[in-house]
Amino acid sequence: MRVGSLTVKPPPFDYSAPDTLEEALFLLGEAGDEARPLAGGQSLVPLLSLRLARPSLLVDLAGITTLRTLGAADGHLALGAMVRERQAERDVRVRRLAPVLADALPLIGHPAIRSRGTIGGSLSHADPAAELPAVALVLEAELVAESRARGRRSIAAANFFTGFFTTELAPDELLTSLRVPSPAPGTGWAVDEVARRHGDFAIVGAAAMVRLDTSTGRIGEARVALAGVGDTPVRLRETERMLDGAEPADGAFADAAEDAAARLSPPADVHGSAAYRRHIAGVLVRRTLKLAAQRAREAA
Amino acid sequence: MTSFDVELTVNGLARRATVEARRTLADFLREDLGLTGTHLGCEHGVCGACTVLVDGEPARSCLMLAVQARGADVRTVEGLAAGGKMNRLQEAMWDSHGFQCGFCTPGFLMQITALLADIPEPSEAEIREALSGNICRCTGYESIVNGVLRAAGATGFLE
Questions:
Q1: Are residues A248 and A224 in contact, defined by beta-carbon separation less than 8 angstroms?
Q2: Predicted confidence (pLDDT) at residue A197 exceeds the cutoff of 70
């Protein structure tokens, strides 16, 4: 809409940029679901411009320094919710302690998106085709949330993504950090995706972890999670169990891929049919497990 | 709705205007500061035409609110040439015929400026990766990639 020289796209809203978490939680608690936290804005601002979201108040989290910390302590890598994706991507501690996260970050959007986009924003937005939710599942990460009414609580990634663009977070609750447990010795990780163009959301994405038993060389633990195959990111626990104690060889990974594909009911859209997505999911499960096992061998 | 005073630095100059919170940085630059070099294509973060530098990092100005840029150091395409003379990147893009209609050019130039600050001598693959979020509908990209190689002092690009 254009009124004279005044161009407007988003509907009107109020805006507050608190300096402290307490103040932000107070504002969110007062406004309830009328308010939305503003992290990097790379998903929320287009929703505003397209008028698909009409919050009455945006609470900008950029000024809260405690949400921007990144560090390793007590066996965990902790990423504040407002750590920018580009910052995490360049951080040596992320590379060392969560290599699958370091590999996944460059797959998100484009450099200009990642320089604004945040870890907490992407997780809270919970796009089922996005990379970070699936990676959080495979990492068995904890998501720390805080609200004025309920205080602080830790939510396992497995319980965080509850539906299509929906999370366990209450409207007055804020995701404050992502805690990633340090990998056990002898683990290898891999992430891969198929997208129409580099930087697009994945048609299907996969993240995998394999830990080899150091005495037998067999698979001690395997994890695999997928993006783009349902309403939420999907952890394939039954498929993982097939691999317990198996020889980390092509045959086992092919069987796992076949099992995974058979369990899925992926959506169909203009980018791919359900059958195509199921096929791609199987291919990515096989590839990521194989690469993770190879890296586990190299790490041992 | 409340209005906000937005004070920031644009291309080294202190600028200010009073706007509503819903004002995007792109519209702020174009409408409030009269800096129409920053172009708006899709207006929802897909095409890259509105890319500017915010505190040295590339950002889509259509995906930022002006209020989020308070106190920031913003660089736009208008800041590239000095004293009416095009900078090395602009010269290289000119010499490589790196644009046709020119609509996408400001966004490309700012994204390339960020790339070259990060990686002074990028490979062709690194260039293509860095520019994957900027859409050009005329050139087919070859001449744009050549322009970046030329600006980086590389040899062997197609003349």
A1: no
A2: yes
